[in-house]
Amino acid sequence: MPNQNKPTPPLSLIEPHIRSLWKKRSTDKQIVAKLRQLIDTDQYGIGLTKFIEIRKGLGLYRTRQQAHTPDTIRPVMTELREIYPNAGVREMISLIFHEHDMAVSRNTMQSYFASYEPPELLRQRKANRLRRRRFWAAGVNDIWAVDQHDKWLRHGLALHTGVEPFSGRILWMKIWHSNRNSQLILSYYLEVVEKFGFIPMVTQSDPGTENFGIANAQTFLCQMQDPTLQGFVQHRWMRTKKNIVPEIAWSQLRRRFAPGFKGILDHGVNEGWYDPDNTLQLMVFHWVFIPWLQSELDAYRDRINNTRKRRDRNKVLPHGVPELIHENPEEYGSLDFKVMVSEAAINEVRRLYINGDHTVFDLIPAPLNHYIEQCYDHLGRPQVGRMSAWTVYLEILDLMRRYEDIADILGGIEGIAEDSDPAILVAGADLHEVDGYMGGVANGLGLQPEHLTALDVYEADEPDTFVDEIEATQVAWVDAFSSDEEEEVDDSL
After folding, report:
1. Where is the Integrase core domain (predicted)?
2. Which of 157, 258, 279, 440 has the highest local Cβ count within 10 Å?
3. pLDDT of 93-125, one tens digit each?
4. Which residues contact residue 490 at a Cβ distance below 8 angstroms, ignoring those fewer than 6 apart?
5. Which DSSP category does 276 fall into?
């Protein structure tokens, strides 16, 4: 127990950690235990009673304290259902918590479904059949897998993601007007590397020149840290094997996120407001919709990363919140294979492989951007959201058409940056592959005796670890559809 005579740490010091752990649905006891690890316990102290007082002062109330009923959540549920038509009970509990700060019990949500949702919708959701695939990972940051998504290209939008497979953490999920430029894709990778300060042992992608930048940078950074890797490309090309984990991430996005937002996009096309072949409409559309959709994707990524997956008896990797597993693998009996890199090394990669002036990094060409900014200022800079995006688009488009020289500006635009760029892949041999293992441990050979010894220590220290066998740490069963749905946390105490 903490010394009761010690002062409570300043709120400014602990509030960010409290809110972060609250998003992860941690219990009060878990949050207090974590805070004690983060504060200077020689100077400060915090107990459960004091923490609960602080939590309530921040407006963070548990499920029982909020005491929601099917009727009190109905207005918000009606709004959410328009955007997330396929969400089931578990996902709706997560959505209403992360988007509206409402803690709702499973019984309440089930009662709402029974009272207000047609029974056939529940039967449709339960009718999904799972496809189980096998994937190998030796530990956290063994592999980062990346992939592009082209389903929204008909709207002039291109998506890209990076996933850490062992924890299930989505590293990035980006939307832009291109996903075929190696410098652009590399910038996504470097943004995350700079944030974390480390890289994985190996990256992985489908074949394609758009991935040359990541392959080159990953190889360069790995070889800087370990000269014995010279001659080997530290990137896996999934030529004969599918890039499983990002494919599953896209499958989840199509089921969870895409229906509602695709409906919003289709509405504008069906009304005749937007034609991607019309240059002016395309430019205004990109300017309005890409930043807004990126904020929605960031919220989606944040929700997935901070929500515990449903327990799966076939999955032998740790069960928990992806972000917590990724940040604290030792607490889940797992190894961490991250490779630390310096800011100077990251800057050198940017110098070698990225031209910051490349037009692919421009949301729209500069001359048009100046005019659209003027139009947006004239409108009073209204907020762009789910209900207002098309209104803002149409108002800006109307003002843009009034400029007499707009035709000359459009005529001078050669178009958005080319999807491809003259990327050259660094020379080198492929990594070893043993029994289907596609990670980077021991240059592709897998776990070595020293790793098994470390796992033995974890098992001895934490007998309740999720990893029951040494061999199990290399096997991950992943489901393409619903086995990853969120698990409700009992936080009603």
Report:
1. 139-315
2. 440
3. 999 999 999 999 999 999 999 999 887 766 665
4. none
5. T
